[in-house]
Amino acid sequence: MTSAQWFSGLWAYWLIIALMMVGLYIVIARDNLIKKVMGLNIFQAAAILFYVTMAKVTGGTAPIVPHDPAHPGGHGEHGILYSNPLPHVLMLTAIVVGVATTALALALAVRIHGDYGTAEEDEAVIYDREHT
Amino acid sequence: MRPPSRVREMPILRVVARALVPVILLFGLYVQFHGDFGPGGGFQAGVIFAAGLIIFALTFGVEALRQVVSVVLTERLMAAGVLLYGAVGVLAMFLGGEFLNYTALDPLTTGHHGQHLGIIAIELGVGIAVAATIMRVYYAFVGRRPNGDGEPREPALGAEQGGGAS
Amino acid sequence: MIEKILVLEVVLPLLAAPVCVLVRHPRLCRLFSLGVVAVCFAIAVAVLLEVRGGGVISYQLGGWPPPLGIEYRVSTVNAYLLALVTAMALVVMSFDSRGGPPRVPEQRRHLYYAVFLLCISGLLGITITGDAFNIFVFLEISSLSSYILVSLGGHRRAVMSAFYYLVMGTIGGVFFMLGVGLLYQVTGTLNLRDIAARLEPSLDDRGTVLALALLVVGISIKLAVFPLHHWLPNAYSFAPPKVSAFLAATATKVSFYLLAMVLFTIFGAPFVFEELRLQAVLLPLSILAMFLASGAAIFQADLRRLLAYSSVAQIGYMTLGLSTANATGLAGGLVHLFNHAVMKGGLFLVVACLLYRVGSVHIDALAGIGRRMPFTSAALVIGGLSLIGVPGTVGFVSKWYLVSGVLERGWTAAAVLILLSSLLALVYVGKVVEAVYFRKPAETQPIDHVREAPLGMLAPAWVLAVAAVFFGLTTNWTYGVAREAAELLLAGGI
């Protein structure tokens, strides 16, 4: 594999890696808890994209078997190229997990704001240091 | 919490919402029942259904929605949806199959439609649970009293806490 | 019979959670969840007895045969973990915390039990399932519920710790998910045994190595392996004490199982430990954990933080056993799962007793408490001795086999370091015992009103203290099962 192919042939992966690092950077570098949650979401979205690109078959269509009147109860015509449905289904679950995580993280952030009067991590740390 | 008066006084928003909300709810039901033989299913349907009701709450106020679906009801429905799902699985066990083996549900139907019956019941459970959970999350966030003074306060007992229990 | 109802191990607590939400009666929910956990424990013990000696129980969810369907597959390795998790859940659940966690009002306490049950269900699910993505789902169920449980501690920093735990846990979970995705890309299957079988020809594939890296890092975050442990001390010290006891006794143990399963069953010991030489990373990190975390524990003024740092150090012993990759060392690590669960669970329950009566577990506040709460303090001493590894306690058993395993490998220096790190444990346990028995209570904090903890609290703590001695004297059950599990893992089975 030449270096040109290395970049062009795998461009989807490079995009995913970049997106992932953007998310991770936000989680690490931002003090605002809501922004951290957003970073976490971007991070998760990158992983979800990874599964979806993996499942895409070039030229493949949505894996819905067409109804074929000639063969009632049969499996439709053959020779159609389908994308792999399994990773998509898995990602439906992963999205649900992401929703639950986000809801919980936001609920915790709201509560932290209630207790500390701020949603900034650094200010909360200072508050803790002053009120032990 | 009532919406800001600006929203309540916007006739366009109110009229459009009044017209759209029933369509959204109907579309939710369509996605729910179409999921049996095409794209769709309980999760998407539940989210669409809950989104329709949340739009209703955004335009007509949360109180109006609470009269239709109370907070306690959403909690009960959350649990009931999951239990419906589980009950189908356990029923299959009682009928001699494995957990969630829909084929074992055949004796309940006249023909060999156990798979159909199972998937419809399960998706219904998913739909109910998801719609109720999304609404419960919405209630949990919208029901908090704004903390006006910005001062840290003592932990409030009884504050909303169900957001992540999905 | 048992193979027909294997699925109930996970389904019962999973469905008991919504039942609790519907029942809404705190006492009823507590009894109900206790009953459910007791049934789970009974199933786990029956399963363990069934599979001992090389048996395997396989359960096909929905009647779909593997590798397409999700398979629940239990051998000695995960039956051991199932029994461990359910036993600890049962003991901790039976602990009567008198009013539940501080931040949950009476009318919402049923939700607390629901979340507890979900957490148990998730942990059992990770252990029992033979499907890689199913593991991820259960991992997130257990993690999400443990974030909630941690946030219920009384102090405001509990919520902050829960948030931090959530961020770290989610990153770990996503890493795990990516690793599973790469494995699926390489092998085209999600069934663990099928992955292992098909991975053989493509072990040198770049994707395989990347998958291994992602899985190991992801699980290490959840396991709190040394440099990734930062969430643990805060989470354990600010969570409600009962929750700390439960999480310390189960959550990290299940993560350890997951790590061992990934390394030995999926990738196989020859690839991981001979070709990639993972022990070159794992061994130094384990030893660093043993020393630095124990060292940090010495300087903690709060008993809960001290125990939390000690947990990080103990995880170091477990991963040390893992990195030996021989039967004795691995069995030492596995038996330490049980032993550490018993002692640390017991110690955190003692902390809960002390918190209830004294109101603080700051070491200065505990001065002289040995006279006022003799039984609680005695349980504290037994747990402490076990942490040091005194003969006659479970801590000695694990260290004995760990040292033997390390010596078998020819790592004499590591064996010496294990013994030296025990001295650090001696220092931090000694510090607590000195305060409890030999120090005079401070003038500012009179302890005359302090009485012995109620029986509902004392009994579960003592069950674990007695177990710490009992299994320190008889090792047939614990080490016997752990040895069998280790041999099975080294042979690449689960």
Structural features, described:
The complex is a heterotrimer of chains A (132), B (166) and C (494). Chain A is an all-alpha fold. Chain A has five helices and no strands. Chain A has a single domain, classed as Orthogonal Bundle (Helix Hairpins). Chain A is 68% helix and 0% strand. The mean pLDDT of chain A is 84. Chain B has helices at residues 5-8, 11-34, 42-60, 62-68, 71-94, 114-142. In chain B, helix 2 (11-34) runs antiparallel to helix 3 (42-60) and helix 3 crosses helix 4 (62-68). Chain C has one domain (2-490). Chain C has 20 helices and two strands. Chain C is globular. Classes of the chains: A mainly alpha (132), B mainly alpha (166), C mainly alpha (494). Chains in contact: A-B, A-C, B-C.
Q: Which CATH class of chain A applies here?
A: Mainly Alpha
Cα gyration radius of chain C (Å): 21 Å
Helix content of chain A: 55-70%
Strand content of chain A: under 5%
Return the domain count of chain A: 1
Detail the poorly predicted runs of chain C. none
- Give the class of chain C from helix and strand content and strand pairing: mainly alpha
Straight-line N-to-C gap of chain A:
59 Å
Largest sheet of chain C: 2 strands, antiparallel
Order of helices and strands of chain A: HHHHH
> What fold name stands as the CATH topology of chain A?
Helix Hairpins
How would the blueprint of this fold be written?
The complex is a heterotrimer of chains A (132), B (166) and C (494).
Chain A: H1 3-8, H2 11-29, H3 33-55, H4 85-116, H5 121-130
Helix pairs in contact in A: 2-3, 3-4
Chain B: H1 5-8, H2 11-34, H3 42-60, H4 62-68, H5 71-94, H6 114-142
Helix pairs in contact in B: 2-3, 3-4, 3-6, 5-6
Chain C: H1 8-23, H2 26-51, E1 57-60, E2 71-74, H3 76-94, H4 109-128, H5 132-151, H6 156-187, H7 192-199, H8 206-223, H9 231-238, H10 241-267, H11 269-275, H12 279-298, H13 303-324, H14 327-358, H15 369-372, H16 374-388, H17 394-409, H18 412-438, H19 455-473, H20 476-490
Antiparallel strand pairs in C: 1-2
Helix pairs in contact in C: 1-2, 1-4, 2-3, 2-4, 3-4, 3-10, 3-14, 3-20, 4-5, 4-10, 5-6, 5-10, 6-7, 6-8, 6-9, 8-10, 9-10, 9-13, 10-11, 10-13, 10-14, 12-13, 12-18, 13-14, 13-17, 13-18, 14-16, 14-17, 14-19, 14-20, 16-18, 16-19, 17-18, 17-19
